[in-house]
UniProtKB/TrEMBL annotation:
A Pfam family assignment: Aldo_ket_red
Any one of the GO CC terms: cytosol
Organism: Corynebacterium canis
SUPFAM superfamilies documented for this protein: NAD(P)-linked oxidoreductase (SSF51430)
InterPro entries with a match to the protein in the record: AKR_Detox_Biosynth, NAD(P)_OxRdtase_dom_sf, NADP_OxRdtase_dom
Protein name: Aldo/keto reductase
Superkingdom: Bacteria
Length: 299
């Protein structure tokens, strides 16, 4: 698997990152991780909700081979309006908990999970600096920030921010407007989260909602429903047509398309078979004419 340097830093990551949000059992996830590592993958993105499972899974790997990316400052279990807390107290506590859950002494890339209107940007930046200077964290970044928020955070930080993670796919291209250009200007790498739009870009929701899919889950149905509209249907059909012409799967084409403008693409895989399908994107280049057609139809 090919590696990319992250922004203007020396951090190197596999351009296909492995997401952990769909992991539900240790044994199943370890099978996926083994396939990922055997393919040369290094970047593992940790979901805060899933750290209790992720820790035992990662124990099978040589820690020095992994680039663990984790976020802090957001607790989805809390009621709306109280989920974001990026105060120094909260971030420090979250970091200690993550290190404990994952059974590691350090996080390779630690990111503030969301812009907190109640915490001064200088306090957030100072906490990131502290985490790096104490050795608990190797590099710092942000998640779900807009372009102006990234610029403010970068200006406040004493150490460089190296990465900004954001949702980016054929169905969600907002990052192209300002965030990606701003990140390039600031020397910050961009990680694309949800490049398959919660599985919608695999094409499996074209006719119905499969029983074993996220759309069939009471907990995650809302994530999928947000993409199941008329615009999405048109884009998915175009993607399926493009994939047929390239003798590839829609998922592989969607990942290869997203990869062109970012440093790394974070893709979740619940089974080894899902990972194998995603991995086929590594050797896939979307021809210019097909890319232009997908660009036009997804604007």
């Amino acid at each position: 698997m090919r590696e990319q340097t992250v922004g203007a830093s020396g951090l190197r990551v596999s351009r296909l990152g492995l997401g952990t949000s769909t992991w539900t059992t240790v044994d199943g996830a370890q099978s996926v991780l083994r396939r990922f590592l055997n393919a040369g993958g290094t970047l593992v993105d940790v979901n805060p909700d899933n750290e209790a499972i992720v820790g035992p899974v990662l124990s099978i790997a040589d820690r020095s081979r992994l680039v663990i990316s984790a976020g802090a400052g957001v607790n989805p279990a809390l009621p709306l309006g109280r989920r974001v807390d990026c105060s120094r107290r909260s971030l420090m506590a979250h970091l200690d908990q993550t290190l404990n859950n994952l059974g590691t002494d350090y996080i390779d890339l630690w990111s503030v999970g969301y812009w907190d209107t109640r915490t001064p940007a200088a306090e957030v930046a100072d906490t990131l600096d502290w985490a790096v200077r104490t050795g608990r964290v190797r590099y710092a970044g942000v998640r779900s920030y807009t372009a102006w928020q990234l610029a403010v955070a970068a200006a406040e930080a004493e150490i460089p921010l190296v990465a900004a993670q954001t949702e980016y796919s054929l169905l969600m291209r907002r990052a192209e407007e300002e965030l990606i250009p701003a990140a390039q200007h600031l020397g910050v790498g961009v990680f694309a989260g949800a490049p398959l739009a919660q599985g919608v870009l695999t094409g499996k929701y074209r006719t119905n909602i499969p029983k074993d899919s996220r759309g069939a889950s009471a907990d995650r149905n809302a994530e999928v429903q947000g993409y199941l509209d008329a615009r999405a249907s048109i884009i998915v059909e175009a993607l399926v047509t493009a994939a047929a012409g390239l003798k590839a799967t829609p998922a592989a084409v969607a990942v290869a398309w997203a990869r062109e403008k970012v440093t790394a693409v974070i893709v979740g895989a619940r089974t080894p078979e899902q990972w194998d399908e995603i991995y086929t994107s590594e050797d896939l280049t979307v021809p210019r004419a097909i890319r232009a057609a997908l660009d036009d139809i997804s604007l």
